[in-house]
# Entry
Amino acid sequence: MPSSKSLFTEAQQKALLDAIAAAEQKTSGEVTLHIDNFCWGDPYKRALLLFRKLNLHETKQRNGVLLYVAIRSHKLALVADEGIYKKVSADYWDGILDLLKTHFKKQEYHAGLCQAIHSIGEQLRGQFPVSAENKNETPDTISFGS
# Structure
């Protein structure tokens, strides 16, 4: 079974990283993408575990977001820290998941993820604008699992 990293070309991975960087330039929020091949259990529980493992709960304003995708299991989850949940409705996050599901049904994984990351960045910009003291609190990388 190919690794989750091999599900995207190098050019696609770079485009996803560029999308994350562009989103974070407009906000103090932090966006992380984790990609697994499979998720054998509840994707939200897996995403919560990864959220803590990746230290997204340690941002100063509690404004980290994890976008979790298990491509071959066809499972998705989003975890946003408490600072975000106080300001952004659950309906918004459901809309992001619906957007991803629509793209994924057509096997447009890369396009769906780029669009979701852009949308999340715009939402965070409105709630957590960039400031003079803005610093990147988490690495701009794609986290890959099994």
Q: What stands out?
A: The two ends are 10 Å apart (CA to CA).
